[in-house]
């Protein structure tokens, strides 16, 4: 099968459709090419096509192979196919490029976050998706900062915990600038595709995140109902009389970022006072650090040794005994070198 970068991507059925002939007719044309190795018509394996299944004779063509067949048919039919096949190959390449763009966005969007009603993406992921360098992105950023509609901090970009992020609006403006100014035509076309296919992919990710968050919110609500509005560490119950003083939080025992498959699982959520919740994450090194049931047990043993929560957490440990500790305990973006954080 064709890999990324392979020139063999056009299936027989799709080529036949573009040529307005049947697959059987296409087979006849190919047989003609094979019949006389000394004539002017050539269809070479590895240049014009490869076999996806040699036993059955199934081929996948390159653009050159498609053009060769169209050129042959043009000499035998009154109706010209040249413009039609050229348009087909162009759109086919666009579809392939768009598919790779979607895959690249999906593989490099883990940093996407909602902040002040805008979605922001880290500089690291931006560079990966746009398939450019930090230096080249910095140049585009500086050009846009000096433009008639300059990029605005908090709107088009921001620094979050010492890491540069771009809002999706800022991201698209960068992709549009690169699509106009990059020297390589292929890279310009890639950035154009990002501006088109990337938008629908990001929207799909955002919709999926919103749906996931709704499931998590429901799980936290169910966990709080199960825990009877009571902090499971301090055993203090929230009532209408102390509601303003005692705030409760639904804590993921196995951190939701490192264990996303458990994020909406009620058994993985425990109700804590917000002050204790914050205390735990501070003790654990920050809210972006991974945490497991063992971390919470150790914290309670050190800070709240009389808590009845230890029995509950022992049961949780049994429920999720198959879960392994993540190899990387930090999920926040690594701080980049100064030259990479400049823009």
Structural domain tally = 3
Secondary-structure element string: EHHEEHHEEHHEEHHEEHHH
- Widest sheet: strand ordering: 4-5-7-6
Largest sheet: 4 strands, antiparallel
What's the helix count?
A: 11
Helix content: 40-55%
Q: What general outline do the C-alpha atoms trace?
A: elongated
Looking at this protein, list some descriptive labels.
9 strands; 3 domains; three-stranded antiparallel sheet; elongated; 343 residues; 11% strand; alpha+beta
Q: Can you walk through the features of this model?
A:
The protein is of the alpha+beta class and 343 residues long. Helices cover 49% and strands 11% of the residues. The chain contains 11 helices and 9 strands. Helix 7 (168-181) runs antiparallel to helix 8 (185-226). The longest helix is centred in the middle third of the chain and has 42 residues, at 185-226. The model is unreliable at 328-336 (pLDDT under 50).
List the helices and strands and how they pair.
Layout: E1 10-11, H1 12-19, H2 23-35, E2 49-53, E3 58-61, H3 63-74, H4 82-107, E4 113-115, E5 118-122, H5 123-130, H6 134-145, E6 157-160, E7 163-167, H7 168-181, H8 185-226, E8 248-252, E9 269-273, H9 274-283, H10 293-303, H11 309-319
Helix pairs in contact: 3-4, 4-8, 6-7, 7-8, 10-11
Short characterization:
The chain is α+β, with helices and mostly antiparallel strands and 343 residues long.
